[in-house]
Specification:
Layout lengths: L1 H11 L5 H27 L3 H19 L4 H27 L12 H11 L1 E3 L5 E9 L4 E7 L5 E5 L8 E3 L5 E3 L5 E4 L2 E3 L2 H5 L10 E2 L4 H4 L1 E4 L4 E7 L1 E4 L4 E4 L5 E5 L4 E3 L19 H8 L1 H35 L8 H13 L2 H11 L6 H6 L14 H30 L2 H9 L4 H29 L2 H5 L22 H9 L8 H33 L1
Antiparallel strand pairs: 1-11, 2-3, 2-8, 2-11, 3-4, 4-5, 6-7, 9-10, 10-11, 12-13, 13-14, 14-15
Length: about 550
């Protein structure tokens, strides 16, 4: 009975206090209120699938924390939720985006793209009149433009409804009052609006189109960009909603909505209507492009080789430096041992992005401390750290060594202190030299403990975006003819970042997501097989 009672107390968490229960209910209430707010937003956007999902998750979380018992679940739930939100969801979402054409020109739905095209498909009528306008409100509440023709000094008025308020000329006989120059100051039946009243008009005067005739598409319209001046415009394209065909007015060329590419496309010669498209699913096209596109395949091979070399060299150099320092400063007879160890940890404690910028200044070709002081004997033959491929790569590895060796020093120091002194003392009595003690005793035991951390360090450096981007920006860029920018120090992740946020050819999130998925699979596979290999180290150590 005692054992059963202890198990019950262990898994139930004991009898909760009144204060703890009230605190738990209050926290859950705050979380539930936030979730309800999110659910209302999702319902408003007709995201019913996500609404049901978040609603069920909230109910499960409430059940876990309000019921008696289930103590392990109470501790695991926050970590599981964060894992799902920041890891699993990111992978799934990236995988989904990789099968779409999502990017600068395809970042919305068909309806949003159509609206953007129609808003942009406006051009001024050549030789048409220009007006200085006043925004007025008629007695029936309609907002109209009262326009003063800058060329003929005639005055016109009209609203968005051509049948009720057609665009027409008005004179003093109609009740128009002007100043000495003929500029309108008042008109019978309308009220001139102030600037504040104009800004309150919804959706706004800049979106208004005052028809010049019964047919807005054929006759054109008056539009303004600032509520002070307006001109006669017309649509450069017309749209047929039934056939989803856009027709160019100038030459009557037809562009059909093509769901395979997310553009309005001409069936005659394949011409695209504009740079505005919509998001569609493209299947395996992004993955196919990675392996078949010459513009990508050219620099990709070199970047992949450099990425592996950078990750391996970074882990190897930092591990060797950290292990060497850990071995040297593992002797308790050294005076000021704690001070030395604290100094070695400083580069790790200092923010990495600030260190990168400091190193950029130190490595500056003309004014940097390294060229002018440490390497001052080279005279005018200064090393161009950021302009030459070899020097730039050496600089990246050097800075990454500075940033990474304190971490290796810490874990190696901890692992060395965990090795029993009896083993090294027995080896010394048997006549083993210090080097043999390190090689045959300490190093195998260290590798058993540190192998998982070295694998994690390799995965981290494989995607070490900050070390590259903050120091060199991926440069130097040696081939300006490439359609996709690729630098000498670019690793895969910085190359993917440039694809995702390219300024020259436009962002391509779909292609970048495909790269991200491949990187995830590559790193996952390497880590999996590497962890399997660590079992061999454990067996040897035993």
């Amino acid at each position: 009975m005692r054992t059963r009672a202890k198990n019950f107390e262990l898994h139930s968490g004991g009898t909760p206090s009144l204060r703890g229960t009230l605190a738990k209910i209050f926290i859950l209430g705050m979380v539930d209120a936030g979730v309800v707010f999110v659910l209302l937003i999702l319902i408003g956007k007709e995201k019913y699938g996500l609404t049901i999902f978040f609603g069920l998750v909230t109910l499960v979380v409430n059940w876990i924390y309000l019921r008696r018992g289930g103590l392990p679940a109470k501790y695991l739930t926050p970590g599981v939720l964060l894992l799902l939100a920041f890891q699993v969801y990111v992978v799934i979402f990236s995988g989904y985006i990789s099968f779409t054409n999502y990017g600068d020109s395809h970042n919305g739905t068909y309806a949003e793209a159509l609206d953007a095209i129609q808003q942009a498909a406006v051009e001024p009528i050549e030789g048409a009149a220009e007006y200085e306008i006043r925004v007025v409100r008629s007695d029936d509440g309609a907002v109209q433009f009262l326009g003063f023709d800058l060329n003929t000094t005639k005055t016109y008025i009209g609203g968005e409804s051509y049948s009720k308020h057609p665009w027409r000329e008005i004179t003093s006989a109609d009740g128009l009052i002007t100043d000495e120059s003929g500029y309108p100051t008042a008109f019978k039946g309308v009220t001139f609006l102030t600037d504040d009243e104009i800004t309150e008009i919804d959706p706004g005067v800049t979106t208004m189109k005052i028809p010049l005739g019964p047919d807005l598409k054929k006759d054109g319209f008056i539009a303004t960009a600032d509520a002070f001046f307006a001109q006669q415009n017309r649509f450069s394209f017309t749209y047929d909603e039934k056939t989803r065909v856009m027709t160019r007015v100038s030459d009557n060329k037809e562009f059909i909505a093509d769901e395979t590419v997310g553009y309005f496309k001409s069936a005659e010669d394949g011409e695209l209507l504009s740079g505005i498209g919509w998001q569609v699913r493209v299947g395996w096209s992004n993955y196919q492009k990675i392996f078949t596109d010459k513009d990508l395949r050219g620099p990709l091979g070199g970047i992949l080789i450099w990425t592996f070399f950078f990750a391996f060299a970074s882990v190897f150099s930092t591990f060797v430096a950290g292990l060497a320092l850990a071995l040297v400063f593992n002797d308790q007879r050294i005076r000021g041992l704690r001070i030395y160890r604290a100094i070695f940890i400083l580069p790790y404690a200092f923010p990495a992005f600030l260190s990168a910028y400091v190193w950029r200044g130190l490595l500056n070709t003309e004014n940097g401390f390294i060229n002018n002081t440490i390497l001052g004997f080279m005279g005018d033959n200064k090393i161009q750290w950021f302009e030459q491929q070899g020097a730039a790569r050496a600089a990246v590895l050097l800075v990454n060594l500075w940033l990474g060796f304190p971490y290796m020093f810490l874990i190696c120091t901890g692992a060395l202190q965990a090795i029993p002194n009896d083993l090294t003392e027995a080896a010394s009595i048997d006549g083993a030299s210090p080097w043999k003690i390190i090689k045959f005793i300490k190093l195998p035991l260290l590798l058993v403990a540190l192998a998982p951390l070295l694998i994690a360090s390799f995965a981290y450096n494989f995607n070490n975006f900050g070390a590259i981007y903050l120091l060199t920006g991926g440069g130097p860029f040696l081939d300006p003819t490439l359609k996709v920018e690729a630098g000498a120090t670019d690793i895969l992740i910085t190359f993917v970042y440039r694809i995702a946020f390219s300024r020259s050819v436009g962002a391509d999130y779909g292609l970048a997501s495909a790269f991200s998925v491949l990187i995830f699979l590559l790193i996952g596979s390497i880590s999996y097989f590497s962890f399997k290999r660590t079992r061999g180290l454990e067996e040897r150590a035993q």
